[in-house]
Amino acid sequence: MSPTTIPERWVASWDNNLTLGQMLDEAGIDFMLPIARWIGYGGETDFHGEVLETVTWATALLAMTKRISVIATVHTVANHPVAVAKQIATMDQVGQGRSGLNIVAGWNKPEYEALGLTLPDDHETRYGYAQEWFDIVTALWTRDEPFDWDGQYFHLKHTYSLPHPLQGIPPIVNAAGSGQGREFATRNANFLFTPAIDLSRSVDEIVQLKRQAEGIGRSVDVLTFSHVVCRPTEQEAKDYVRYYAFDHRDDVAVSNLMRLQLAHAESFPHDLLTRITDLFAMGHGGFPLVGTPAQVAEGILKLHETGFGGTTLSFVDYNKEFPYFRDNVLPILEEKGIRLPNR
Ligand SMILES: Cc1cc2nc3c(=O)[nH]c(=O)nc-3n(C[C@H](O)[C@H](O)[C@H](O)COP(=O)(O)O)c2cc1C
To answer: Looking at the whole model, is its pTM more than 0.90?
Structure first.
């Protein structure tokens, strides 16, 4: 998640992912959530240019783990709903009910172009398409008999998808920022992701999102994403941030990432630009958890107090850094009662 040029940056190879997945599984971490990318952001590192495809990635991880949930991130426009319904059902069988689906309605214009598609300018079309797409997926997951579909975007004849997922409809994740996106998320998702840039704003935002869901008879949990640099001393943690995110920032990748985010998505507050640019260089805009184990735990407790139900965690080098977090931060969270001890 860090657009940095340091040679020891994370390499998202299958070997590294498998090592990580099995380590997280043993540590009792709840889930893994991947980034789905079709082309990178350019720059010296072509940041995100080599991420693995997420459905195949998740299925393989589910086969090689025992308890952790693994979510696939799927772009509605790049994946046909009949194919996705069966893919997720397959994942769910491989993982014995541990699959999940993160729906991305789309925002990244060059990526649309790489797929030979045009990003619709208006959010109504993007989310109108996503809604019909997801209605088809849920119909395929819940109906036993073949059916015809005659919608605005899809016309399907005698379609069905068996087997259904083991867990009925698997957990649905969505990370929309716009008004239309949030309507989509509160209508369809169980877990809604939103950046934690300014916690005083997040308090109201979370209340509002939950209320919006309750208004249509649903209940959603609001999660965020964080980036961890945890070291024995605060100075060591800060020095490392300076090293990878400031002195060795992939400037071109960061500015491309920022430009595309600000032009096409509304997930990040546009008025906090400088701060957000630094956060993107650190960990793709994630909430910074930088410092000693006690300080990192304190940051997570703050997210909890703000009303977030959970957070993802990223590291510059997951496999090297997660064990220190596991051994020194998780026990504090257990002691404070916001995390159950590992079984
Ligand atoms: C935690 C999180 C994960 C996301 N994962 C992806 C992803 O893997 N691929 C992607 O293209 N966009 C991803 N997004 C981007 C959101 O889906 C994006 O905010 C959305 O498409 C823009 O919605 P909006 O126009 O309603 O703000 C993610 C966002 C967040 C906060």
So the answer is: yes
